[in-house]
Amino acid sequence: MNLTFLIGLVAGFALILNGILQSGELSSFIDPPSLLITVGGTIATVISSYPASMLKEIPKHLKIMMNTKKFAPEEYIDKLVELAQVARKNGLLALEAEIEQIEDPFFKQSLTMIVDSNDSDKVREILENDLDCLSARHQTVAGMYERGAAIGPAFGMIGTLVGLINMLRSMNPEEGAGDLGANMSVALVTTFYGCILAHMIFSPIANHLHLRDDEEVLCKTLIIEGVLAIQAGENPKFLREKLVSFLAQKKRQMGEGGDSEGGGKKKGKKK
Questions:
Q1: Are 124 and 235 in contact (CB under 8 A)?
Q2: Quick one: which of 111, 103, 113 has its CA closest to 83?
């Protein structure tokens, strides 16, 4: 479970609640019509902006976002180095037996293409196009939640305008403006709901989905560069150095410290 998201969400609501109770009453911030305008309007707009095929995948998106299992580029590097050793010793055809042990479909497809003696330029073109399309789909999904984050405050403002219009229409000049402050506070509650919806729910979900996309793109980039290097017959030690250079500085020590003889025991997995 993604504890950082849950901890941040709970802590954010707790701090807001504490601030409300320190300065006033919780009942002042509860207004069902405002909640209906803001939350209902945002959800309705998101539904109208995207096809049903994408909307029905929302539970899957949340599952991916909450999943703590991440892509492990170090494991991919170890496996690629092991395969480079096998190919260097026994030839590319020897990789056919290794392909069956790999679970990642993209990894398996990449190896199959070089074993079948396809031109390296064509292999790169196909794999990079596959990766670009995958990332584009991921960006579209994250964009749906970014769209919700942009719409939330807008509907908060709409609710505020609705409240102000109703307040002004119901004002009686003879009675004065004694109720103006109370009515104004109710009108502003919708903006409060909109900001919470955007910055505490939709934006964090979108950010986590972007991070998962970055992780997957990195691992698939390692696969592309690795299999093409294997096809070219590059030295396994050089291959490790080349692939480790794609990692962040803190992870490079782990990648460089991998055992090229035993690292192949780890399978490249799509997580």
A1: no
A2: 111
Q: Where are the beta strands (DSSP E) in the chain?
A: none
In this structure, which amino acid lies at residue 149?
A
Please tell me whether residue 30 adopts helix, strand or coil conformation: coil
CA distance 233 to 240: 13
Q: Per-residue pLDDT averaged across 220-231, rounded?
A: 94
Q: How far apart are the first and last CA of the chain?
A: 14
Contact indicator for 106, 268 with CB cutoff of 8 Å: no
Please state, in angstroms and as integers, the Cα–Cα distance from residue 109 to each residue in 83, 122, 169, 180, following that order: 14, 13, 67, 68
The residue-averaged pLDDT of 102-109 equals 92
Helices and strands, number each (H, E), in the chain: 13, 0
For residue 98, give the amino acid letter.
Answer: E
Amino acid at 66: M
d(CA 167, CA 187): 8
Helix-, strand-, coil-residue percentages of the chain, each rounded to 5: 80, 0, 20
* Alpha-carbon span 118 to 248, nearest angstrom: 32
Show Cβ contacts of residue 54 under 8 Å, excluding neighbours closer than 6 positions.
140, 141, 144
Cβ count near 108 (within 10 Å): 17
State which amino acid sits at residue 265. K
Share of the chain above pLDDT 70, in %: 86
Question: Whole-model pTM?
Answer: 0.80
